Amino acid sequence: MANQPIAELFGFPPDSETERATRYRTNRLCPYNNKVPSCTKDSVTDPLGVCTIFHGEKLAVICPVRLRQDWIIAEQAAAFFFPPKANWTTLVEVRLKDKQGKSAGNIDVVLVAYDDEGRITDFGSLEVQTVYISGTLRKTFFKPLMDDRTAYFATDWAKSRKKNPGPDYLSSSRKRLAPQLIFKGGILKAWKRKQAVAVHSAFYDTLPKLPEVAQEKADLAWLIYDLVWDGHDKKYNLKHTRTVYTEFKTALDKITISEPGPMEDFVAALQIKLDAKLEGATLAQLADTSADIPADEPDLLDQLENL
Fold first, then answer.
1. Which pLDDT belongs to residue 2?
2. Angle at the Cα of 98 (from 97 to 102), degrees rounded to 5?
3. Number of domains in the chain
4. Locate the Restriction endonuclease type II NotI domain: which residues (predicted)?
5. Are 162 and 39 within one domain?
6. 150: exposed, middle or buried (C-beta count within 10 Å: 0-12, 13-18, 19+)?
């Protein structure tokens, strides 16, 4: 099992033969509060039912619905948004529009507080962020597993030369999380509504260190979770690890603005390129000027390779 990438399939370990795991796998159901009973990851008719993959000795949650287990995330977001004993509920996939009426995207979960007559008194947004993967999962692993479980588990995946897919945390934070915070979060911030983001701890650990504030000063809470093995149920269960309270603007700046390295290194890299060009180097030769860099300057080499 350790040499193949699938950690959870339709909510259960892929080798689980329990009656419940078999029923969910056979009917392609989702046990984690999807908007419909079936799994709809990537496709309604042919869902990619992989919730979580192995990444070395760790896990990487790749489906946002996985973090909805028992609606723990909603309960903890409500504790941040609303006073104790408030009446509240969840509304999922709520369209948000900007001043011009254009869509800023769907909010994963909107929590609304309401009075005894059912009128909304407050609301907050909850985004659920998991990681994209690089590499092929469906064709190389998921389909063979669903087609022939016996053959799949008999395969020595370490010798198969099939490359396991892996999490792409950088793309996930810059191409998904950051735009969500900018477009949707910016509107909610202007409305002075609190926000929360639910993430797997492995994802959060790849973000820059966010400046923390006291809960009463925060307008953005990071709800951080892990999957913990339950030996009795023979499956992973969601567990809240910690909550990080931040201010929206400072957290957004930290995520979206790259910390600069030494400018001197960049100028040195430019000088090497310029010297080569002035000496008549071709474009191909200019691309290979990294050969002129001494071996004790790895940071400069890295920058040249990206020019």
1. 57
2. 65
3. 2
4. 20-238
5. yes
6. exposed
**Are 227 and 281 in a shared domain?**
no
Say if CB 167 and CB 55 are below 8 A apart: yes
Phi first, then psi: give them for residue 146, nearest 5 degrees: -75, -30
Contact between 4 and 165 (Cβ < 8 Å): no
pLDDT of residue 301: 36
Residue 53 shares a structural domain with residue 98? yes
Indicate if 27 and 123 belong to the same structural domain: yes
In angstroms, rounded to a whole number, what is the distance separating the alpha carbons of residues 59 and 69? 16
Q: Binning pLDDT at 50, 70 and 90, where does residue 305 land?
A: very low
Domain annotation covers residue 125: yes
Where are the extended beta strands (E) located within 19-150? 50-55, 58-61, 87-97, 103-114, 120-129, 132-134
Look at residue 69 and tell me if it is in a domain: yes
Domain that holds residue 123: 6-256
Distances (CA, A) of 128 to 1, 3, 106: 28, 29, 12
Give the tens place of pLDDT for each residue, 231-269. 988 999 999 999 999 999 999 998 887 778 899 988 998
- Identify which has the larger pLDDT, 156 or 10: 10
- If asked whether residues 158 and 245 sit together in one domain, one would say yes
Instruction: Report if residue 176 sits inside a domain.
Output: yes
Query: Rg for the chain (alpha carbons), in Å?
Result: 24
The pTM assigned to this predicted structure is 0.83
Asked if residue 1 is part of any domain, the answer here is no
Q: What is the pLDDT of residues 96-122, one digit of tens each?
A: 998 999 988 899 999 999 999 999 999
